Amino acid sequence: MTYKNFPMVSKVVFGRGSFNQLGDILSPKRLNVKAPFIYIVDDVFQGNSWVTSRIPLAYDDKIYYISANEEPKTSQVDDLVEEIILNYKALPSGIIGIGGGTILDLAKAVSIMLTNEGESKNYQGWDLVKSPAIYHVGIPTISGTGAEVSRTTVLTGPEKKLGINSDFTPFDQVVLDPELTKDVPVDQWFYTGMDCYIHCIESLNGTFLNAFSKSYGEKAYDLCVELFLDNNLTEEEAQDKLMMASWHGGMSIAYSQVGVAHAMSYGLGYLLGTKHGIGNCIVFDHLEEFYPDGVKLFKKMKDKHQIKLPQGICSKLSDKEFDIMIDVALSLEPLWENALGKHWQKTITRSKLKELYLKM
Ligand code: NAD
Ligand code: ZN
């Protein structure tokens, strides 16, 4: 038996208003005046001076405002990398992502592809990256995905939706400033928050569970219950705690895996473009047989916050479309093995998955 030796985020700052320190954090990392810092920022912040006035720009530094309406694509990563290479004489000093999981993943992927040849689709998988990435910094503005702490960057490519999982993927620096999440709309807060809750349920009920994952998963789970059910917190406490729940949830799956909801949600995302947070909720709502207690509690949380999930999103799909979704879901073998054990193929057949998708 050999155990995996994982890298982690090397530096992290936590605190309300810590975003103000970005200039001090970055300045020692500037390689030279020709090597800019490139900021990849969610376009929801364009024109929002409360955020943008604190982004320290000098020399050739540049902000790219990018929409998070669609999740990152390999072609989008490749285009951005090409643009950066064409526009600057030197490789950047750093890539800084400011946004949710979509933007954080884009920043990670761009920092990897600036130093690795070819197209990003060739690196979707496990441990395919050869060279260290450019210094990269993650600044989450919505909490739940764990993308700020994880070893992957999830991309939709021409053939699959799959992460670039590598030792070079984790951020070199993370800035956790819960104040940045203050304007997240309630529905989105719930969907992305539930991503964290579902990470906990899938990790804690998985066959890969071990004391490392359990300790993080239990902490994140308790925080989620406190946040989404008990609800005795001030807004500030809630923002602080959800940011830490996201971190712990991400740490929990580092040494285990996610499960059924993620496998099936990837299928929805690939075919229909359903986003990760809401997609997980749509799927998880129908997974009582796999996660009875987790789903029961999820339904309580959903009611408490009056969240109405879309219904019937698979009702008009053709057989060919079902096949595409089922292929994507089934290809995620480690997720199924974590959820159901080595012999998962006995229970998870194509017709079983179609039956489940038809409920959604
Ligand atoms: P997101 O980044 O897609 O953003 C969701 C919405 O919230 C967007 O409209 C965005 O503009 C808005 N938003 C973000 N911050 C805001 C703020 N402070 N105020 C107002 N609006 C704000 O959402 P997400 O759920 O964080 O990320 C989903 C993505 O994360 C997916 O692409 C998924 O694949 C990825 N993901 C990655 C990992 C990983 O480990 N790398 C894990 C889970 C999910
Ligand atoms: Zn997730």
Strand order of the largest sheet: 1-9-6-4-2-3
Mean pLDDT: 97
Which bin fits the share of residues in helices?
40-55%
SSE run: EHEHEHEHEEEEEHHHHHHHHH
Number of helices: 13
Strand content: 5-15%
Low-confidence stretches: none
Question: Radius of gyration over alpha carbons?
Answer: 20 Å
Give a short account of the largest sheet: 6 strands, parallel
Bound molecules: nicotinamide-adenine-dinucleotide, zinc ion
Shape: globular
Structural class: alpha/beta
Number of strand segments: 9
* C-alpha end-to-end distance: 40 Å
How is this structure best described in words?
Helix 3 (74-87) crosses helix 4, helix 5 packs across helix 9 (276-284) and helix 8 packs across helix 11. The strands form two sheets. Strands 1-9-6-4-2-3 form a six-stranded parallel beta sheet, covered by helices on one side. A three-stranded mixed beta sheet has the order 5-8-7. The chain has helices at residues 22-26, 49-52, 74-87, 101-113, 186-204, 211-230, 235-254, 260-272, 276-284, 292-304, 319-331, 333-340, 350-359; strands at residues 11-14, 37-42, 62-66, 94-99, 125-126, 136-140, 154-156, 161-165, 173-176. With 360 residues, it is of the alpha/beta class. It binds nicotinamide-adenine-dinucleotide and zinc ion (ZN). Zinc ion is lined by residues 145, 195, 199, 262, 276, 280.
Keywords:
single chain; 3-stranded mixed β-sheet; binds zinc ion; binds nicotinamide-adenine-dinucleotide; 360 residues; alpha/beta; globular; 13 helices
